[in-house]
Amino acid sequence: MGRDVFYITTPIYYPNDVPHIGHAYNAVATDFIARYHRLRGEEVFHLTGTDEHGLKIQRAAEAAGMEPKAWVDQMEPRWREVWARLDIAYDDYIRTTEPRHVTAVQRMLRAVHDNGRDDIYLGLYEGLYCVSCELYYTEDELIDGKCPIHGRPVEHVREENYFFRLSAYTDRLLAWYGEDPSRIEPETRRNEVLSLIRGGLQDFSISRTNFDWGIPLPWDPNHVCYVWFDALTNYITAAGYGSDEGRFARVWPANIHLIGKDILRQHAVYWPAMLMAGGVEPPRQVWAHGFLTVGGKKMSKSNATGIHPFELLDHFGVDSYRYYFMREIQFGQDGSFSWESMVDRHNADLANGLGNLASRVLAMLGSYFDGVVPATPGDDSDLPKVIEESRRRYDELMGTLALGSALTAVWDIVGRANQYLVEREPWKIAKDDGRRDELAAVLYTAAETLRILAVLISPIMPNAAAALWTQLGIGEPLDAQRLPHAARWGGLAPGTRTSKGDALFPRLDS
Ligand code: MSP
User: Fold this and answer.
1) Atom of ligand 1 nearest to the CA of 258
2) Cβ distance 7 to 254 under 8 Å?
């Protein structure tokens, strides 16, 4: 069992269009978690990519008058460009049109096909088909016998497809989840999946003959692989399935597939069953987050709620962007985006909170100690205790992906530190030459708090953390810091030369 590496994945996104803030929500959360685990000294493998086959992509290409491959080739860089601006530090980027993936999918298909249990069989797909939708409908979905979307007559179609015998996996899936309920989180999603499985599973078709933009089945190239069977396999392709067994043993099974709730069935039912059929262990955890809405509505291009991340990044900057979405929405729940709440968060937590703390402390070190961290004669402040306690909560909450609460735990330190300055009034102490020791103690405490804050915020705000670290003038690189050690009180060496740089978070007009 792959125990060496913390392996976390995003879904692979459909490049039929450019990303919106809903996709970015998923990417930022994954990156936050991945960076946090790196900070703990773990070897991390963070995978993302694009899901480039299937009818949806073929149609988008056709609408643009392009070949599907040419379409995805010009689209994929537009996704990567957004991830770069969002500081998404993935370790690998997979495209399902890459040869390594085609090989892995065909190998997986073969493994299931040849498992001796007849799990893939040729069957007849018969149904009512809307050519405009390219979808099958059941009788009761039709309106007046016509397609509910287009109002056009449907055709009776019979197509030979290969099926995956999902129905044979009901008991094994129930046993799998029974062994360890944390395999699906949060609990509401687990219950949803369990009732779906208990309700009885139907075999699903894993091949198509009505279009050709996909991976041919190795034993019958007239069929292309159904896009979900193809896409899910990306998670093992990138881990070395069938190409690097040594690496595969170290990396697989994935620790977390972080997905949106809309693709839960595919990840928590189809995927583990496919893997069981192919003789591969299922992932350790599927974690489904909620949906981001705009003005209470589902995001979409057609109702003008499809916001591109750049629209916000240009205004708020990347750190504020990442912080807002993770802090504002309880992870696991749906949450609404609004410009106003983003400005409020930015001003309250970042400009007035952390930013103000940093600029005050660095300015005072500059004025009273020529920027040099003073030796402290000792201080009776409760900050070391507050930090230790918050750091412990942060760790616990990151462990359960309570991402917003984990940030709240860190901001408890910010709040307490700002309050400490108000209580101690170092600007008054500075007026009295007889109180130099006291001044040194207060500013050491405040500067040390900033050092620990820089470490703790580095997974969510890599830029602000780096800027703060530079301002503090610490010699050791920030990315060499490891939790929990780096959060221990007293790490800041007296004599360190600080400098007051630009404000970390300029205030924004509301
Ligand atoms: N290609 C499939 C996934 C295959 S994984 C083997 C797919 N792609 S997608 O581009 O449509 O969605 C990618 C992810 O973005 C999904 O997790 C989906 O839940 C998420 N989101 C899309 N819109 C979203 C919101 N409005 N809010 C939050 N997440 C959203 O599905």
Assistant:
1) 17
2) yes
